[in-house]
Design a protein that fits this description.
It is a single chain. About 35% of the residues lie in helices and about 30% in strands. By secondary structure, it is an alpha/beta fold. The protein has a single domain, classed as Aldolase class I (TIM Barrel). The chain has an eight-stranded parallel beta barrel with strand order 1-4-5-6-7-10-11-12, surrounded by seven helices. The chain is globular and about 40 Å long.
């Protein structure tokens, strides 16, 4: 697995939400570009960026910030939040984003991923964000009536190359990740899964790494890094191992 630090953008700042609640956010930095440089200098090979404003349909005011981050760092960037249309996909790919995370649009219309893969190539990740097994959409503010496993089964057949799985009840809590359900999603989808939400300490990375599950590709961490519960450089040196899943994920 690899360790993937997260930058969540809200009104141009780096923030973390608690369980996806926009009314319970903490600002960890006003300069996302400098934050990205800091994370990369610690040794990360991949960066996770979420546009929280766009995710809830509040515009695309963070796209310029994402462009500046891309222009200042040289690692794989996966980005999500508010990717709804063909023009969104084209804009982000033109910026140079390597992987596009499809959440709401994939839940509403899984076939769109196949259409975009045919047009743009293998760039698309499914962001499956669930609360009590139900997929949440529109910045986690709406239900979908979809089971997380049902959506996961649709991923590979619609051009998706990997899945980011978030148990919303864990996100931002520092209570440890939902490993069992992440493995369940990997097994039903037959795709590499990135675990997201709840990372609290280096021990969480070690637990996941020691499992050596062939379907777990990476782990996203945010709040634990920002609150200095994890020495990111040391955690990467001790726990990160190359992930080989054949095709790029």
């Amino acid at each position: 697995m690899i360790i993937i630090p997260a930058i969540d953008l809200l009104d141009g700042s780096c923030v973390r939400l608690l369980k996806g609640n926009y009314n319970d956010s903490t600002i960890y930095g006003s300069d996302p570009v400098e934050m990205a440089k800091k994370l990369v200098s610690a040794g990360c090979e991949r960066l996770h960026i979420v546009d929280l404003d766009a995710a809830r349909g509040k515009g695309k005011n963070n796209r310029d910030v994402i462009r500046k981050i891309r222009n200042n760092i040289d690692v794989v960037i996966e980005s999500g939040g508010g990717i709804r249309t063909d023009s969104d996909v084209k804009e982000l790919l033109d910026i140079g984003i390597d992987r596009l995370i499809l959440g709401t649009v994939f839940a509403k219309n899984p076939e769109i991923a196949g259409e975009w893969t045919s047009k743009y190539g293998n760039h698309f990740i499914a962001g499956i964000d669930a609360l009590n097994g139900e997929v949440k959409i529109s910045g986690w503010e709406e239900g979908s009536l979809l089971k997380d496993t049902d959506l996961a089964k649709l991923a590979a057949q619609n051009g998706i190359i990997s899945i980011i799985y978030t148990n919303i009840d864990k996100d931002g809590t520092l209570e440890g990740p939902d490993i069992s359900n992440s493995i369940r999603i990997a097994e039903v989808s037959k795709l590499p899964v990135i675990v997201s939400g709840g990372i609290s300490s280096e021990k969480d990375f070690k637990v996941i790494a020691d499992l050596k599950h062939p379907g777990i590709a990476g782990v996203i961490t945010g709040k634990a890094v920002y609150e200095n519960r994890i020495d990111l450089k040391l955690a990467i040196e001790k726990n990160q191992k190359p992930f080989n899943y054949g095709e790029k994920w």
